[in-house]
Amino acid sequence: MLPDDRLPQQRRKAQLQLDAFTLVGIDGMTPGDGDLALGLDWLQAEATRTGAPFVTSNLLCGGQTPFPPLRRIDKDGVSVAILGILGEGETLPAGCEATAPAVALTAALAGLDAVDLVVLLSHQDPSLDEALAAAVPALDLVVNAGIGATTHPPKALPEAALQLAAGTRGKLLGLARIQLQPGGQGFASGGDLDDLERQLARARGRREKAVEDAAAAEGDAAQARARQRVGFYDGDIGRLESLIAAARTPQAAPSHLIENELLGLDVEVLDHAATAALLDAAKAEIEAAAAPVAVGPAAALNGPFVGSQVCSGCHVGPATQWATTAHARAWASLVGQARTQDQDCAGCHVTGAFHPEGPQAGEVVHEALRSVGCESCHGPGRAHVSDPAGSPLLRTPPATACIQCHDGVRDEGRFQLDAYMDKVRHHPTSPDPADPAL
Ligand code: HEC
Ligand code: HEC
Ligand code: HEC
Ligand code: HEC
Q1: What is the C-alpha R_g of the chain?
Q2: How far is CA 359 from CA 49, 136, 157, 307, 367, in A?
Q3: Going by C-beta distance under 8 Å and a sequence separation of 6 or more, which residues neighbour residue 145?
Q4: How far is the CA of 306 from the centre of ligand 3 (A)?
Q5: Which terminus of the chain, N or C, has fewer Cβ atoms within 10 Å?
Q6: Displacement of CA 249 from its chain's centroid (Å)
Q7: Are the C-beta atoms of residues 347 and 409 closer than 8 Å to each other?
């Protein structure tokens, strides 16, 4: 939940997003739990102000549906129904609940005249879309914005439906070009085949390389890793072969065509200038309005965390190495992006945020606890500082410490335990010296 004093800043950003959407023009959007946390009244007012076409089929607030459960678009002789669902069990504002999706969708679709396409905007766990498509056969396309989902090419769901997803955090733009065929049933890939063939050739090449690496690898661990890669590519090759076979199988009834791409929104894609200017101005305003920063000696820090500088006095070797790592620059990364006040980022770019007595969301982060310090991995150190031998810390932080932050979502799955561990060890040649002060 968002603490109240941060709401205006969050709202300002959400409002920018809505303004950007109306600049682009859009036919349906489903707010998620993060949007609803901004307050239903505010969201409804913004929808009115911007004309944002919210659609929520399974949201009830005070027994009412705050947004239309279905939108019907009739354009250029084509009719499309758009529905939207939130995941059951998402944290929603008081008085609101997300009801069972299948029941809500069936109710929303009852009495709808025939349309050419039924599109569901799904904010639930992507793996649940399969059962939902089976329960609601009218669905044609399910566009999922749940955590971790990216599907390319589209994933087949029961009842000839397809799932599309472009991941989270606005890194990718999903583009689906659809060609409806008169009397068509279900979808066939149009143009995906070449792409699949290319992916297959690449996977085969990588498998060959992994086989060579396995033969050349020295040591059990290296061999096991190379064999694991071979196994991974075997699975990938099988998956691609069956997709290609399915794309080549002639269909009994004519089917609609779909081509789907995921476009990376990297620096090569120019920002919409007017929206980018609005965003920069809002970020500068938020940074300038930030609460004064807590500075001063670590003694002014309450709680069990003392900050890395205190540790560095005794552990010169580890501290010197740590200062060269990305962890020591984690706060600077937020400064660089004008996001120091964004509580969405603080959890992983400051020390101790996962600890109940560490800095909490919405609080000013003490200077000593900015960035990913010693205590992020070794645990809170106040007791250890006053009695090093009597209050030992974790000597070898386990992988579970890393994956609190390297969670496979924010870091886009880049974390690899062995390679990453090598970069954070303080003594690459002798990992566990007898003298910890080295
Ligand atoms: C769940 C933890 C987590 C949260 C929350 C998080 N980050 Fe990160 N961030 C990481 C990790 C882990 C990396 C390192 C990824 C890697 O290179 O393996 C990272 C890397 C970065 C980088 C370095 C460059 C890059 O893109 O890899 C920047 C900049 C950054 N984050 C900004 C942010 C901002 C801004 C926010 C808030 C909107 C945020 N982070 C929220 C964990 C997080
Ligand atoms: C990203 C996690 C991480 C951070 C941050 C980190 N360490 Fe470590 N530290 C480790 C790991 C992992 C080991 C165990 C190394 C091994 O097993 O080879 C370790 C080991 C140690 C040891 C045991 C002896 C040694 O030198 O290996 C000391 C002392 C130590 N760290 C101090 C510090 C201090 C002081 C800081 C901050 C300046 C710090 N660490 C920051 C992960 C971290
Ligand atoms: C006053 C000096 C001093 C300070 C400050 C200090 N340490 Fe230590 N640290 C030691 C000594 C001495 C040992 C060895 C204790 C032993 O082997 O009995 C040690 C051991 C360690 C170890 C190895 C595991 C263990 O506890 O034996 C780690 C990890 C460690 N310190 C991390 C830290 C971190 C993180 C901080 C800051 C929060 C810190 N130390 C602050 C003196 C200090
Ligand atoms: C408190 C959150 C947190 C924890 C715990 C954490 N990391 Fe990180 N890690 C980050 C963030 C944030 C970054 C990106 C810093 C930046 O560039 O802004 C990062 C970056 C890294 C990088 C640099 C990636 C690159 O190539 O740019 C490595 C390597 C790394 N972490 C390894 C580890 C390992 C291994 C552990 C566990 C022993 C660990 N981290 C624990 C948050 C964390």
Answers
A1: 26
A2: 37, 45, 44, 12, 11
A3: 30, 32, 121, 122, 123, 165, 168
A4: 13
A5: N
A6: 35
A7: no
pLDDT at residue 346 in the model: 79
What separation in angstroms does the CA of 290 have from each of 84, 279, 299, 307? 36, 17, 23, 22
331 CA from centroid of ligand 2 (Å)? 19
Q: Is the CB of 402 under 6 A from ligand 4?
A: yes
250 Cβ contact partners less than 8 Å away, ≥ 6 residues apart: none
Is the predicted pLDDT of residue 294 greater than 90, yes or no?
no
**Residue 53: alpha-carbon gap to chain centroid:** 23
What does the angle CA 408 – CA 410 – CA 416 come to, to the nearest 5 degrees? Answer: 35
From atom 23 of ligand 1, which residue's Cα is the shortest distance away? 333
Closest alpha carbon to 54 in 88, 17, 9: 17
Confidence of residue 356 (pLDDT cuts 50, 70, 90): confident
Residue 135 near residue 102 (C-beta atoms within 8 A): yes
Task: Tell me the per-residue pLDDT of 167-199, one tens digit each, with 9 for 90 and over.
Answer: 877 778 888 888 888 877 788 765 567 778 888
Report which of 6, 2, 33 is spatially closest to residue 341, judged by C-alpha positions: 6
How many residues appear in the chain? 438
What distance in Å separates the CA atoms of residue 286 and residue 284, rounded to the nearest whole number? 5
Q: What angle do CA 223, 227, 233 make, to 5 degrees?
A: 150
